[in-house]
Amino acid sequence: MALKQDNLTSKFSGWLIVATLLVLIYLLSPILAPFLAAAILAYICNPIVDSIENWSLGKLRFGRTNASSIMTLIVITTVLLLLLIVLPLLQKELMMVVERLPIYTTYLKLHLDPWLMQNFGIALEFNTEKLQTILSENWKSAGGLMGSMLLTLSSHGMTIIAWLLNVLLVPLVLFYFLRDWHLLLASIGELVPRKIFITTKKIATDIDAVLAAFLRGQLTVMLLMSVFYAIGLKLAGLDLALPIGILAGALGFVPYLGIGLGILLATISGLLEFNTLSQFTPVVVVFSLGQLLESMWLTPNLVGDRIGLHPVTVIFSLLAGGQLFGFTGVLLALPASAAIAVALRHLRRQYFDGNLYQ
After folding, report:
1. Are 301 and 293 spatial neighbours (Cβ–Cβ below 8 Å)?
2. How many alpha carbons lie under 13 Å from residue 117 in its C-beta half-sphere?
3. Per residue in 53-107, pLDDT tens?
4. Which of 147, 245, 310, 358 could share a disulfide with 229, CB 3.0–4.6 Å?
């Protein structure tokens, strides 16, 4: 009787701890974003740190701390380079839109206005020069960044400061996660009850295998597609091929977002640079070949079916992630669903082997 009472007390304590953790995660969710981002980056970068750790210069080995510092600097440098490449070129494209706005509005007035009036009795009424002046003045005023920042800080100071702190926290937390990654995993393993330790370790190992194959394979696809789109669009004659190619390839892990945004930006850029519709043909060819390359060769070979989800489940996961957690939910939907699917497969196996089913 006493033994049974102890088992009930132990189970109740376990569920109480789980419930407490879930409540804490919910209450602390506003500040968890930088820690979650750093944890994901650490998970992806940890194998590289393991390799760098074993490098040596003569008799001196790099060690875990130096390897973590190098990897953190690589991540920071990569992000800064992307921003320095993409933002100035997008600024150039926006200025080109402002400069060529009268040409397009004149075209619309000459061709679209008569058609709208004839079929719907609607006339386009807008002042092109005034619209261009407004856009130019606002864009130039955006160049006075200090004044805008001071004005924004005065009205939303704490929000801006909190956002900056979150951004600065990511590389700091990333460094500590990378340095102590194996120690953290060992500490978590020590907390798992011994009765379920072997099963939990097996599930965690299977989840790690699925996520590693998916995330690292997907990153390779993103990198190769960014290079393909950048080179292809440059050969197609687009001046802004580099930023458009990087965005189209880097956002390819979100279904239809990368290709959709790439086509939209390439179309806008083409309208600003090309003089005839025939010049758009190479752009269409680049995106068509890109989709064939990604869907028929890169993704099957580098990612494949390792995520183990049915197409309907993939669609549902993306919609559910977006509904529950917004854009972040969409980003994490597939890897989270893959992890849940692995756990459910183990539970299914235990159910079939258990007394309830037998």
Report:
1. no
2. 10
3. 888 777 777 888 999 999 999 999 988 887 787 777 667 766 766 676 666 667 6
4. 245
